[in-house]
TrEMBL record:
<feature type="signal peptide">
    <location>
        <begin position="1"/>
        <end position="19"/>
    </location>
</feature>
<dbReference type="InterPro" id="IPR018389">
    <property type="entry name" value="DctP_fam"/>
</dbReference>
<dbReference type="Pfam" id="PF03480">
    <property type="entry name" value="DctP"/>
</dbReference>
<feature type="region of interest" description="Disordered">
    <location>
        <begin position="23"/>
        <end position="51"/>
    </location>
</feature>
<protein>
    <submittedName>
        <fullName>C4-dicarboxylate TRAP transporter substrate-binding protein</fullName>
    </submittedName>
</protein>
<dbReference type="InterPro" id="IPR038404">
    <property type="entry name" value="TRAP_DctP_sf"/>
</dbReference>
<dbReference type="GO" id="GO:0055085">
    <property type="term" value="P:transmembrane transport"/>
</dbReference>
<keyword id="KW-0732">Signal</keyword>
């Protein structure tokens, strides 16, 4: 009997301990259950008072010194992190790989497709062959150098033509969630340039399809990415470069090319934010919603940020002793007239890719005109 009573008392004590440990406490720490990227359960809810951790790998070939990546961090990553934490039972654990550490510059689209990262920021200038529609403004030089106007134009184009975004999913195993624009492209050179005639015989560096902007000028094009710009100018591989202004300021390109020409070359749709489809399909629905909503807001934030820093960049260039020249409208028209009809070539290439090239290109110009931006040249769009 004594043994039975002791056993009963022991069982009662054990039950009491189990009951107490099952009770929540306001001071208890949040429990985290890690869900590796692409392995989330979109139907399972986290236990009350706990947070499930979702690991997402994000990367790009460009570093955080570039404004579109700065905006990606300051707006996209920040807001996704905060909203997921406050609005859901999940937390995001970011694994960041900018500057080409996982997906190299020009290989972001493939890297997201292959699952090397879960979220990628693709630099579009290197994807003209695979994303001809998304890259089309690169073949429309001197169209507009105002980031805010270009951002509004891009929003209207993407809303009217869903093929701008659907291609990522149908062809490249990724979900499109956001687009950014470049800062105004500037012309940095080792000698002063005030006109089209001044560039004859120069070796000019540019990335990808941007080399088409100097065809017919008498200059020699040199394939040059942002990452190579400083060294190529320093070693005389090229005597000038056409690159986004702010990135070159951060790279101190003015040290080796102290002349800056504001030529109204362009602001273009520059970087796309996409999510690997396998990862996307495994994410909880509420997390997908937040990614979509924050991705949609990225363009406005990034365009405003770029607009603000451009004026600061010009002041900094002056402070560093850089000579700044603004190319006159007359010289812009002369430069555009010297080019082959690359807009007509664009229309034909879009037609060949299965798009209505003339309609889409004309629509872009019409939206710009509705914002007061005149065409630099009467390009042959219809034929």
């Amino acid at each position: 009997m004594k043994k039975n009573r002791l056993f009963a008392l022991g069982m009662a004590a054990a039950v009491a301990v189990m009951s107490m440990t099952g009770c929540g406490s306001k001071n208890s720490q949040t429990k985290e259950t890690e869900i590796p990227a692409g392995q989330g359960d979109s139907t399972a809810a986290a236990p009350s008072g706990s947070k499930e951790k979702i690991t997402l790998r994000i990367g790009s070939g460009h570093s955080e010194s570039n404004p579109w990546i700065t905006a990606l961090e300051d707006y996209f990553v920040k807001n996704v992190t905060e909203r997921v934490s406050t609005e859901t039972n999940y937390e995001i654990d970011w694994v960041k790989s900018y500057g080409g550490s996982v997906i190299s510059l020009g290989n972001e689209l493939q890297g997201v497709q292959d699952g090397l990262v879960d979220i990628g920021c693709t630099i579009l200038v290197f994807e003209a062959s695979r994303l001809p529609l998304q890259d089309m403004v690169y073949s429309m030089p001197f169209s507009c150098s105002d980031p805010l106007i270009v951002a509004e134009t891009v929003k209207q184009m993407y809303a009217e033509y869903p093929e701008f975004t659907s291609t990522y999913e149908t062809d490249y195993n990724q979900k499109f969630i956001g687009i950014g624009v470049s800062d105004p492209y500037g012309f940095y050179s080792t000698k002063e340039v005030k006109s089209l005639d001044d560039v004859k015989g120069m070796k000019i560096g540019a990335a990808g399809i941007n080399l088409s902007w100097i065809e017919g000028s008498g200059a020699v094009g040199v394939q040059t990415s942002l990452n190579d710009t400083y060294q190529n100018l320093q070693t005389n591989v090229c005597q000038a470069t056409i690159q986004p202004t702010h990135s070159c300021v951060n790279l101190k390109v003015y040290e080796v090319a102290p002349y800056y020409l504001d030529a109204n070359f362009n602001v273009v749709p520059f970087n796309a934010i996409t999510v690997n489809m396998d990862t996307w399909n495994d994410l909880p629905e509420e997390v997908r919603t937040i990614l979509t909503e924050v991705g949609e807001g990225y363009l406005d934030y990034e365009a405003n940020y770029i607009n603000e820093i451009h004026e600061q960049d010009l002041k900094e260039l002056e402070a560093k002793g850089c000579t700044i020249v603004t190319l006159s409208r007359e010289e812009q028209e002369k430069w555009a007239a010297s080019l082959p009809d690359i807009v007509n070539g664009l229309v034909k290439s879009l037609d060949s890719a299965g798009y209505n090239g003339a309609e889409i290109v004309e629509k872009y110009y019409q939206i710009l005109e509705s914002h007061g931006v005149e065409r630099i040249r009467d390009w042959n769009i219809g034929n």
